[in-house]
């Protein structure tokens, strides 16, 4: 029989989180971020977190929420600074920031989930990203040795999920959620729709439930849009 | 004198070939999508996880689940596909994307590019730029020839922290189209009404001028 | 005397814990699926690309598009999921599978395993076995205690080419259940009607016997 | 507009194949093998091929077809020998055989497609697979350095595909087809159903068309079953 990963709510889902842990957050910009788990982490109050997330949210939403409460010690991201509190903490030295190439960020997540401790990538050679890293040439081209991440928790968000943890994402909100779901020692998925096993077509599942330890239906999804760009309907 | 941003985008669009998968950076590069030549089919890749990116949605049809790498709401064309970030950069690193168009703050005459960090200013990060420039076979830089102080952005050596080395293939500016060669910037075309002399004066890196330099056709 | 193949499988099934993802090798390990204890929910992973593997299909319902790693036609249970080979071995290498049950030709008292190649015979290949044994945290070997010539398969050192080193956690044979410890095979249980002496005689590797060794409960 | 990768038939799809090339074939056992491309390769007669394929087919079907005509110089596989002609050629030394762990095989395909020239894996350490390979310890565990494959062509088979090369597989016939589709310099996909762009849900595509250079509707799919195991319906 299929396994059951359902927990009652966000509070139960984040159980085990401790100060100074390394945790991952899916999402790109504000799209596909684990909104409900972030809110629960704020309530929980765990401090000194090292957060691996492509971006750092905005003031008052997404990871911005945990920055306000000074719960974040360090951000590992590819692009940040869409929020003023982040900028203030970074410039004042309160917040450590490790900026790494986006593809390397994604691959280090995937490698962590796939049992690949390290791999070579051309990204960052000849730049400050290469400082202290092994350089090795393959096919006449220089590459850097990059290592898999090591995260205690991964928080991801999907559109639909079943009780066994199988996930389906919608549109571009899949982004980092899939690779991070593979990478967490404990991966917590929040979904908009929680369904019974058998309701998702086994051929159309994006993330197999084996990667997910806990799943719950998020209480509230604001799904804020960062840059609303539209065109007018022609008459 | 010289092209505006749309003119630069229009000239770069002439580099599109039938069957190309193309990644367009933020800024001028995004405008390239408005000038796809007739009879040329290309697909746009957005590194946050889609191929077959279309125009902005109609008012009221925008979705938080459908954005581009600039975090703008967009649409999907028929034949589009969504995928995760690791797969997206597999495409980029694996050289499946045929053309990358990026903005830059500086380009050196060996093809180095600096476009992510200015010491002393808030650093936002490199996003996907380092993966793109380290991997792509065909990288066109879209930028103004000089900065706001009138200083050349086409240099012998970049002064800003690098994004990648020896990777740029062409530069299209408001003044000219230039190819990176082992000997420096080879001047291919002048913008309408711009003289070779003006380009010379605006270029700090090694500039190669061979014979008559034609004017761009837009 | 001793267990038959089904008995070995039945004993191994007692090692299943609620919530386990399990990979079963070909041969005796496959039989483990027939003895899942009541109240225990597990899911079977097949390394060719599925989770939630069910029993053989009813006659006429078999499909070439739904097979297990032994190339047998099978079915999918509710909650099943299909994926590609790279993802499948990501699960295995990444230690997402909780228990692996494999057959073997030899096991050493340090936990080395040989199960893929006999010099002089046609070599068919290791399939996924090397990935499984190099990665899994919990590997149980299911095999007969001795080979057809009556020679022990639980050795001080493997004589056949290895599949993996220091990886086996337990061995369940027709005669006994043994745990691999730094000092050798720790005898945990005897098969019904089998004496410690018989196990001693059939074990070439270091055997540790502590106190009274209980009989298996099946 | 979406790109068009459609070619008329298998003969056109394999154009450019040359003697002594390295080529990949999707499939696991006989499930999901590119049957039609294999038949076309037999007609084409290209010799000295190095074939990367998890298995080697059976006598008279799958890659067995190319073994009969001695078109294969070398097989790189994880499990072989389901066919007698293969065994005969291997034992006589006519055929080179390189056996590698199945997960390493899959990951070397994926790495090739993903621009990762090399990676570390624990599989094969301490075995003859490790001979000549760099060993490196990560997290207290030994790993081998493995390199991406380099293949001129990859032949894959999908259930459905659209004219832009987007693919959907069925059940366990996905297997090696996805990673290999990423890995070929030219990837040829044969499908049971060829549809127009827009007919596949962009959220449910398994292999994005960017990895596919040519696609065609296979003329004939035998889809042979290797081990027909069934149970009787109870009365």
Number of β-strand runs of chain A: 11
Overall geometry of chain B comes to globular
Order of helices and strands of chain A: HEHEHEHEHEEEEEHEE
Provide the β-strand percentage band of chain A.
25-35%
For the largest interface in this structure, which chains are involved and how many residues does each contribute? A-B, 58 and 54 residues
Which band does the percent of strand residues of chain B land in?
A: 15-25%
Classified in CATH, the superfamily of chain A is Glutaconate Coenzyme A-transferase
Low-confidence stretches of chain A: none
Q: Spans of chain B with pLDDT under 50 lasting ≥5 residues?
A: none
Largest sheet of chain B: 10 strands, mixed
Q: What name does the CATH topology of chain A carry?
A: Glutaconate Coenzyme A-transferase
Please outline the major beta sheet of chain A: 8 strands, mixed
CATH classification, class level of chain A: Alpha Beta
Q: What features would you highlight for this structure?
A:
heterotetramer, A: alpha/beta, Glutaconate Coenzyme A-transferase, three-stranded antiparallel beta sheet, 6 helices, 11 strands, B: 218 residues, three-stranded mixed beta sheet, 5 helices, 13 strands
Structure description:
The complex is a heterotetramer, with 2 copies of chain A (235 residues) and 2 copies of chain B (218 residues). Chain A is built from 6 helices and 11 strands. Chain A has a single domain (10-117, 149-217), classed as Glutaconate Coenzyme A-transferase (3-Layer(aba) Sandwich), CATH 3.40.1080.10. Chain A has 235 residues and is an alpha/beta fold. Chain A has helices at residues 10-13, 35-44, 64-68, 84-92, 102-114, 177-183, and strands spanning 22-25, 49-52, 72-77, 96-99, 118-121, 135-138, 141-147, 151-162, 167-168, 184-195, 214-217. The model of chain A has no long low-confidence stretch (mean pLDDT 96). In chain A, strands 1, 2, 3, 4, 8, 9, 10 and 11 form an 8-stranded mixed sheet that branches. Chain A has a 3-stranded antiparallel sheet with strand order 5-7-6. The radius of gyration of chain A is 18 Å and the shape is globular. Chain B is globular and about 50 Å long. Chain B is built from 5 helices and 13 strands. Helices cover 17% and strands 24% of the residues of chain B. The mean pLDDT of chain B is 96. Chain B has helices spanning 5-13, 28-31, 85-93, 129-135, 196-202, and strands at residues 21-24, 43-46, 50-53, 76-82, 99-102, 106-108, 113-114, 139-142, 154-155, 170-172, 176-181, 184-190, 207-208. Chain B has 218 residues and is α/β, with parallel strands linked by helices. In chain B, strands 4-3-2-1-5-8-10-11-12-13 form a 10-stranded mixed sheet, sandwiched between helices. The longest helix of chain B is centred in the N-terminal third of the chain and has 9 residues, at 5-13. Chains A and B meet through helix 4, helix 5 and helix 6 of A and helix 3 and helix 4 of B.
């Amino acid at each position: 029989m299929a396994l059951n990963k359902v927990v009652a709510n966000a509070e139960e889902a984040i159980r085990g989180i401790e100060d100074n842990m390394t945790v991952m957050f899916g999402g790109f910009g504000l799209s596909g971020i684990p909104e409900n788990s972030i809110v629960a982490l704020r309530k929980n109050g765990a401090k000194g977190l090292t957060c691996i997330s492509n971006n750092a949210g905005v003031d008052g939403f997404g990871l911005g929420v945990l920055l306000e409460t000074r719960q974040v010690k360090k951000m590992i991201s590819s692009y940040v600074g869409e929020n003023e509190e982040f900028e203030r903490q970074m410039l004042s030295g309160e917040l450590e920031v490790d900026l790494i190439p986006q593809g390397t960020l994604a691959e280090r997540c995937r490698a962590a989930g796939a049992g690949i401790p390290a791999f070579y990538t051309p990204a960052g050679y000849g730049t400050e990203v290469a400082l202290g890293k092994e350089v090795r040439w393959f096919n006449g081209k220089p590459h850097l040795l990059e290592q898999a991440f090591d995260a205690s928790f991964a928080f991801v968000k999907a559109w639909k999920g079943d009780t066994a943890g199988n996930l389906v994402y919608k549109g571009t909100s899949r982004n980092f959620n899939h690779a991070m779901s593979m990478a967490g020692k404990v991966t917590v998925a929040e979904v908009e729709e929680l369904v019974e096993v058998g309701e998702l077509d086994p051929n159309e599942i994006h993330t197999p439930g084996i990667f997910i330890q806990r799943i719950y239906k998020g209480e509230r999804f604001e799904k804020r849009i960062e840059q609303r760009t539209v065109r007018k309907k022609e008459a | 004198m010289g092209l505006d941003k749309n003119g630069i985008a229009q000239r770069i669009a002439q580099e599109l070939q039938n069957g190309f998968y193309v990644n367009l950076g933020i800024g001028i590069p995004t405008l390239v999508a408005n000038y796809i030549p007739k009879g040329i089919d290309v697909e746009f890749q957005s590194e946050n996880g889609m191929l077959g990116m279309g125009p902005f949605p109609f008012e009221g049809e925008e979705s938080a689940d459908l954005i581009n790498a600039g975090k703008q709401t967009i649409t999907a064309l028929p034949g589009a596909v969504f995928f995760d970030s690791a797969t997206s950069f597999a495409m980029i690193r694996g050289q499946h994307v045929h053309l990358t168009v990026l903005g830059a703050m500086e380009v050196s005459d060996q093809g180095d590019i600096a476009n992510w960090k200015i010491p002393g200013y808030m650093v936002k990060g490199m996003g996907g730029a380092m993966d793109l420039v380290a991997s792509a076979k065909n990288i066109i830089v879209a930028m103004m020839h000089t900065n706001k102080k009138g200083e050349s952005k086409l240099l012998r050596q970049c002064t800003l922290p690098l994004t990648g080395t020896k990777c740029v293939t062409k530069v299209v500016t408001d003044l000219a189209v230039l190819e990176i060669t082992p000997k420096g910037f080879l001047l291919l075309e002048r913008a309408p009404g711009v003289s070779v002399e003006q380009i010379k004066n605006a270029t700090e890196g090694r500039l190669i001028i061979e014979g008559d330099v034609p004017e761009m056709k837009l």
